[in-house]
Amino acid sequence: xxERDLEIEIRGGAQLERIIxxxxxxxxxxxxxxLKSGLRKAARPMVPKVRKAIGxxxxxHDGTLxxxxxxxxxxxFRAAGTQAGITxxxxxxxxPSGKKSLPAYMEGSKPRWRHPVYGNPNVWRQQxxxxxxxxxxxxxxxxxxxxxxxxAESIAKRL
Length: 159
What we know:
The protein is an alpha+beta fold. It is built from 6 helices and 5 strands; from the N terminus they run βααααββαββα. It has one domain (6-157). Helix content is 47%, strand content 19%.
């Protein structure tokens, strides 16, 4: 996992890529599109749940970091290569400059989070992590996996 991203991936990797290619080769791009759409749809319900968990992180300020993290939360689908699959992530690349690694610090996947106290660059403070991602994903991971398998089986039956 890249340092700046938090993600869970449900992948078939090379198998998923081969399935999509095979569907296109037999001339059924419609089934390939349906598979991709179904997989995205199965993972999409976790996005608002992760965003809600982000919104519940305590803050002593205006909540800008929480808003930025919510905006960076998304589902991504890749149909090719070893990275083929569905990824749910709080994407550090979508965070403002200077904050790209903060989702990983907040989740606790980076060891410690220190920052200067606002208005005083000589005083630094250690910030505790607030796990928001892994608990939500763990709670719904099996359900999402079941939905994705059902989509794949439905399409396989029609071939």
